Amino acid sequence: MNWITSFVRPKINSMLGRRDVPENLWIKCPETGEMVFHTDLEENMWVIPNSGHHMKISAHAKLRYLFDDGVFEELPRPPAVQDPLKFRDSKKYSDRLRDVRTKTGLDDSIVAGIGTVKGLRLVACAHDFAFIAGSLGVAAGEAIIRAFEVAIENKCPLVMFPASGGARMQEGILSLMQLPRTTVAVEMLKEAGLPYIVVLTNPTTGGVSASYAMLGDIHIAEPGAEIGFAGKRVIAQTIHQQLPEGFQTSEYLMEHGMVDMVVSRLDLPDTLARLLKILLKQPADPQDDAPEPEPEEAQPEPEPADEDQVAELEAAGAESADTSDGSDHRDPDERS
User: How many C-beta neighbours within 10 Å does residue 12 have?
Assistant: First the structure.
């Protein structure tokens, strides 16, 4: 069977002129089931055009869509201890790290960079959910803290894009220690008088949502993102109640005051630049505030008056001149 698959079938395909067609040319919308061509999705920042559903994207794609012309300087990741607990579950943690690094091309779940957004210099830090569910470990914590330090050194704001299942269990208490460490980094940025904005993406849960993901000056969320600490099923089983519709979504959290804005990925650079200029007390761009000029309507030309109208206007002018000398032309009875 292997001989037929590996030799005979390719030979027949080459004789008949068949070509292998990639399987990912069409993407199915998770909400509506609509099939969208992959190039259309890429051009639309992986947002389904009709439904507006935001597909998950990599950390590099988040930064590329954010910065002007997609250009930014990626920050080097500080060295960190690998597999400090020599952890093993179904497989060794060191083997799991090696496999996921080969698959994603990343050293860990955090990618940070510095660049300009609408001419405004800032540092951005993003989780990559493809790397062990974007979990927070020692290496990820070190990368986040380094991003805050770079923002303070360059006196520029920081924008965080969390997408994580929480702390990385394979690193135990050491991963949990990253929560207070990153919280201290947030406070250092705020003490320097620099803005910190969080853009919550799908999903943001666990210890990440219990620390730096909820400490921003302003919290923005992508539409439909799942945001919370524990999962819906765990909460429902604990309180023995049915959860409301849309629970833990961006829109639900905005209605209940936990999120300030729900902004599409397409509008995010403009929104961030406008908010940061307000926080930094910088003048807004003229084109941002000036309303678009309304088209002027063509005024109809006045029709030429005929001779009778001219005579009537002259007579009315003469009467008004007679009564404008200040004398009282009323009858004596009316004056008394």
Answer: 11
Indicate the pairing of strand 120-127 with strand 110-117: antiparallel
Question: Which residue, among 129, 164, 124, has the nearest Cα to 58 in the 3D structure?
Answer: 129
Q: Token pair of 111, please? A: 């990618």
Q: Which two tokens stand for residue 298?
A: 């063509």
Q: Hey, is 63 helix, strand or coil?
A: helix
Instruction: Show me where the domains of the chain are located.
Output: 56-80+109-283
What's the rounded Cα separation, in Å, for the pair 6 and 1? 9
What's the CATH architecture for 56-80+109-283? Alpha-Beta Complex (3.90)
- Distance (Å, rounded) from C-alpha 126 to C-alpha 58? 9
pLDDT single digits (tens) 17-43: 555 556 678 999 998 999 999 899 999
Helices (H), ranges, the chain: 2-3, 9-16, 38-43, 59-66, 93-104, 138-153, 172-176, 178-191, 206-209, 232-239, 250-255, 268-279, 286-289, 307-322, 332-335
Residue type, 49: P
Asked whether the beta carbons of 217 and 195 are under 8 A apart, the reply is yes
Report the alpha-carbon angle 220-225-230, nearest 5. 105
Please state the φ and ψ torsions of residue 116, each to the nearest 5 degrees: -120, 140
Phi then psi for residue 99, to 5 deg, are -65, -45
Summarised one tens digit per residue, pLDDT across range 270-294 is 999 999 999 999 887 766 555 555 6
pTM: 0.79
